[in-house]
Structures are given as C-alpha cells and as structure tokens.
Design goal:
The structure is a homodimer.
Chain A lengths: L2 H21 L5 H7 L4 H7 L3 H23 L5 H14 L6 H10 L4 H22 L9 H17 L1 H4 L2 H12 L6 H6 L1
Helix pairs in contact in A: 1-2, 4-5, 4-7, 5-7, 5-10, 6-7, 6-8, 8-10
Chain A binds a DNA duplex (30 and 30 nucleotides) through helix 1, helix 2 and helix 3.
DNA sequence: TTGACAAGTGGAGCACTGCTCCGATTATAC
DNA sequence: GTATAATCGGAGCAGTGCTCCACTTGTCAA
C-alpha cells in the first residue's frame, strides 16, 4: 500500500472511532471523512461499505472475546464461565447500534462482520455446550438463543441510561431462565 | 374540522398504515404523503412529528391491550395471566422499529406515545404485582424490568424471520427467569 | 535525477431524506 | 354571492449515502 494511502486509512479509522462512539453506528460518513480530513472518495476506497468500517473497528475485540471464551473452556464451573463471558461481552459497548449490527450479521453471510464474529460465536457455543453437559443449562437452548438473548440485553442497555444501569440484573434474569429448571409451571403454583 | 381536512387525515392514516407496515417505523414520510396524494405540508399539519403519526396508528391497540390486562386481573392463575398478556403483546408486530419506539417513550415524557401507553404499562404492572403476591414471580422484578425484557424479545423477533419463529421459546426462557427460583447458583451445580 | 504511470485522492453531483414556509385554494358561514 | 379563515401543496433548505472521474502524487526503473 502506498504510504499516503496507509496514512489516510489510519486517519479514517481514528476519526471513525471517535465519531461512531459519539453518534452510534448510524453516524454520518461525511462527518467521518471531514474529521479525517479526507474526501468521500478516499473513505469509500478504503471502506466500501459502512459495515466494512464497523467491522474493522470491532475485529480486535471479537478476537479477544473469542480468546477469552477459549480460555474459559477449561474453567471448573462451566455455568459460571459462561456467565462470566456474557458479562464480559456486555461490558463493552463501543457505540449505539452494535446489538442491531451483530444480529444483522447472523443472516447475512456475505457481511464482513459475519466472518469476523463467527469464531467468537463458535467459541461461546462450546462454553454453552459444556454448561449443558454439566446439567446446568437446559438442553434445548442453542447458541442462537443465547446470542439473541444476550444481544437483546445489550440492546435494552442502549435505549436509556437507567436501563443500562440494570444490565447486570437483566442478564441475571435471562441466565436464570436458561438454567435448568427444577419445577414446571404446575409445581410452581404449589409453592 | 373542515371536511377536506378530515378526508386528508383519514387518507394519510391509511397510507401510513400500509407504508409503515412495509418499510418499518423509519419509512419515508414523503412516500406516505405521495401515497395519500397529499402535500408534505398537509401531512405535517395533521401529524407534526413522525411520533404523532405512529402514536395514532398504535393508540387503539394500546387501549385494547390495557383492557386485556385489566380483564386478566381477575384470572385464577396470576402467572398464567401475565404470560398470556405478554404473548398477546408480542403477537402483534405491526412494523419494524416498534420495540425501539416503545423503549424511547419510557424516558421521553413529552412524547405522544408516552401518554398513550402509560395506562397499558400500569395495567400490566398490576398483573405483575399479583403474580408476585402469589409468590410465582421474584419479588425484586419491577415493571420496568418486565417491559424492557418483553420489548427485548420483540426486538429480537424484528431482526430476522428465523428469530421471529423462536419468539415463543425466547419468551418462555425469559418468563422462567422472572419466575421464583428454588435454587441458587450453588445448588444448581449439584444436580 | 528524472520521467512514466499506476495508485490514490477529493469533491462535485445525483437522488434521496426530514422539515419549514408561504402563496394559492377552498369549504363554510353569513 | 361573497368574505375569510382554514387548509392545502410543493418549492426550498440542509442534510444523507454513494458514485464517478479529472486531477495529484508516491514509487521505481532508467
């Protein structure tokens, strides 16, 4: 890559990081270009779609989360490991619209983000399987359920500050819902 | 109201219903005006904000849901009543972006939608309280938790058709998470 | 050191958006 | 039939995503 191209690439990424953090995933790309002191053409040359830009911003973190999941696979308590990973996942909210972007990549195989978080999803899938094998999580839960619900909690947190403050609590409810249940609806009534 | 104004009001609402169902809450208002065969000025005269338009589209349904909640207050099994209401709530997905719009109204007291669904939220709050009094739902859950989680499930369903197909299932997990828990994390490990 | 030239740049331009404004129109009351 | 206030419609403004291409510039062989 030519040296000026490399410089611009870095400038764009840096500008995008700031602006996306402030305005969310729907930030104006013109604003990004402006802040990077670069033309629209240059921005689109380096990042042909908005998603490509977001993917580059997120890639490192996805890899780190995948690694974290891999490390937790050997933890003593599989359920606690799963819970820890989910908390870690949710603790990092770089911008509004992340949850939505992540859900969109599930069905869009072409998307840059799809490939980028595939490894992460696989790794957390193994965490889930371990928790199920140990009998701590309901067997009918699959990793799509898990991913959808944790993103749902993330989405709620994006909606308002007072909801973000409840994130831990909501995740707790969801985790309890995924955990193996001793009672069914009928026996619950008898308590 | 002048007769031509009344006619245009109805035309706009009818057009909005169709277009919002197709394009979601972010539908182009120009499209709505075009379909209603009305100028932009006319549309904005009747509905000064996009929210005002959505609110009018939703109002009837909110009232019906509030009534349904009120009716369920005398049900025999409070938990089943709550579950039934939540299922009813989720069964009606008039357009993409509804969940987000509803969450936004929570913090925005000025919004037309805020007033419009206040009664509904109060009614379902009473359903929740009954289920808690009967010991079927954890006492620490409040109606904001409930509203947030049910909207989160609704949001997930908006993201992809195969996720919409899991709506019942996801709601089930969430409901089990809100239900009174017999076991804590330690005892779960022993099973 | 100097061209040659591909690689890279930047911004004008198009079609769209939300929203405002105001001259033209029209339903209605007298 | 006319006065007039209510209503209408679309031009216009500032913004958006994205494309296109004339121009500039870094690189490298001569």
């Amino acid at each position: 890559m030519r040296s000026d191209a490399e410089r611009n690439y870095a400038r764009i990424l840096s500008a995008a990081k700031t602006i996306v953090a402030k305005q969310g995933a729907q930030a104006s790309l013109r604003d990004v270009a402006r802040r990077a002191e670069v033309g629209m053409g240059t921005l689109y040359r380096h990042f042909p779609t908005r998603e490509a830009l977001l993917e580059t911003l997120l890639r490192d973190r996805f890899e780190a989360l995948a690694a974290k999941a891999a490390a937790l696979e050997s933890a003593r308590d599989p359920f606690a490991a799963l819970a820890e990973w989910l908390r870690e996942f949710l603790s990092w909210t770089p911008f509004r619209g992340l949850a939505s972007a992540l859900m969109a990549t599930l069905s869009d195989q072409e998307s840059a983000l799809h490939a980028s978080c595939h490894a992460m999803r696989q790794a957390v899938g193994r965490l889930l399987a371990r928790a199920q094998e140990s009998g701590q999580v309901r067997p009918e839960v699959d990793s799509l359920d898990l991913f959808a619900l944790v993103n749902a909690v993330g989405w709620v947190s994006e909606q308002a500050p007072d909801l973000a403050a409840r994130q831990e609590r909501l995740l707790g409810f969801v985790l309890d819902g995924l955990a193996s249940q001793q009672d069914d609806a009928d026996s619950r009534e008898c308590r």
